Amino acid sequence: MHVYNWGLIILFILGVSRTNAQTQKGYKIDTTQLYSTYCFLHQNPELSGNEIETSSLLKRELLELGFTIVDSLGLNSFAGVLKNGKGPTILYRTDMDALPILETTGVGFASSKTDNSTGKQLPIMHACGHDFHMTTWLGVAKTLVTNKKKWKGTIILLAQSSEETGQGAKGIVKASNFGKLPTADYQIAIHDTPDLMTGTFGFCDEYSMAAVDMMNITILGRGGHGAEPFKTIDPILLSANFIQEIQGIVSRNLAFNNPAVITVGAINGGTVGNIIPNSVELKLTIRTFSPENRAYILKRIEEIGNNLALAAGLSENELPDYKLLDMSIPPVYNNPALGELLQKSISNTSKSNSIVKVLPKMIGEDFGIYSNSNTIPSYLIWAGVKSPINTTENTSGSLHSSTFLPDYKSALPLTVEAITNCLIDLFIKN
Ligand SMILES: [Zn+2]
Ligand SMILES: [Zn+2]
Question: Which ligand is nearest to the CA of 382?
Fold first, then answer.
């Protein structure tokens, strides 16, 4: 038989609950509302540039909370501004768009929406978690308003259209109304990730996400009979050589610690086996971190393409045609000093939160358009949404997959609390 020391047990319980009371910030967060907003947004996704219902829902919510709306920020983008006394100005951005993916999560609130605006019926799904970003953003808006006494300053909540197509942030900074927004002292954003457990926040200082360039190249040749290749200049062989050679830029021209990616994602040329075509179309993506690398790689691609064409016997008028698409976005640059402050705030929000350092990623995010100049300290935080338990509602596949589903029930309140605390700390530290 065990003899318990009840006094010690009571002291232990008191001690534990007191520690929790000190570390948890104790903002009242309405989880029922968070869940219903999340499920509604998840079930009603809209493609890039089409976020009409989504943006009006967000606007309505912010208006109700007392924000002033600054509209016409390009596409469906807008901002909500709330002035709460003298203090710093912080911009917090969410994206709003979904992807043309057929959802297969099997949850009751799965999307069955389609988009017919292009003449083709496309399925739509929030497969990048921008619904999670928006719900967190609204939750933070509400928590900031109900805790107005705890901070002073101006919050700009930026709702951005078309992140997935790289057009949203560009449209915002070009819009004349963007100049009407107060200048931010800090800029932050989150991105959810199933690579990290719920309650874990990922930080990557300096260049954290890559600059994205998309390029279409037409490799020219001189077509003819497939049985008489000696009478032709074969653009298919030329393309094959070119694809091999440009891989040498990363592996042989750049230093090992100077990361970049060149991917040829599409190659189209020819019709049948016995005809050598006149040209071949290639579609590439190029990922870099520094502007110097980017410029070097773009130059090298042309050098290689031109020299291979000349070596194959083509004239100066038959060099490849290189088209850099109007989709380029700069890398995301995370300010280390701001990162340190944010990490402290997140750790102080709850003892169960953990911070991890993550490696830079070669995927792109147009938040880089606001942060790249580095004149305004900016940070994009990774918010973990992978559930420790596997249930039907937690089948977290990878981002952009048909099975992606954040562990929203746990991750939403945790993330709302963490980001609110980050903002309040930034407001009162200055
Ligand atoms: Zn995405
Ligand atoms: Zn995304």
Answer: 2
**Ligand 2 center–CA 317 separation, angstroms:** 42
Report which bound ligand comes closest to the CA of 190.
2
DSSP state of 286: E
* pLDDT(302) > 60: yes
Mean pLDDT computed over every residue of the chain: 92
- What the block records as the tokens of 393 is 């509602």
Q: How far apart are CA 238 and CA 226, in angstroms?
A: 15
Reduce the DSSP state of residue 62 to 3 states and report it: helix
The total of other beta-carbon atoms located within 10 Å of residue 112's CB is 10
Q: pLDDT tens across 32-57, in order?
A: 999 999 999 999 999 999 999 999 99
Average pLDDT over residues 300-305: 98
* Distance separating alpha carbons of residues 322 and 61, to the nearest angstrom: 46
Distance 16 CA to ligand 1 centre (A): 41
Tokens of residue 283, six digits: 């579609």
Tokens of 139: 């939750």
Does residue 225 have a pLDDT over 60? yes
pLDDT digits (tens, 9 = 90+) for 152-170: 999 999 999 999 999 999 9
Q: Report how far apart, in Å, the C-alpha atoms of 3 and of each of 7, 8, 15, 407 are.
A: 12, 12, 21, 42
CA 380–ligand 1 middle distance (angstroms): 14
pLDDT of residue 11: 38
| CA 153 distance to own-chain centroid | 27
Whole-structure pTM over 0.85, yes or no?
Answer: yes
Q: What is the pLDDT of residue 350?
A: 87
- Give the model confidence (pLDDT) of 95-137 as tens digits: 999 999 999 999 999 999 999 988 899 999 999 999 999 999 9
350 with 415: CB under 8 angstroms? no
**Cα 63–68–73 angle (5° rounding)?**
105
Question: Fold for domain 211-324?
Answer: Alpha-Beta Plaits (3.30.70)
Reported CATH class of domain 28-209+331-429: alpha beta
Q: What H or E segment, with its residue span, contains residue 265? A: strand 261-269
DSSP 177: G
Domain spans of the chain, in order of start: 28-209+331-429, 211-324
Q: What tokens appear for 23 in the block?
A: 């570390």
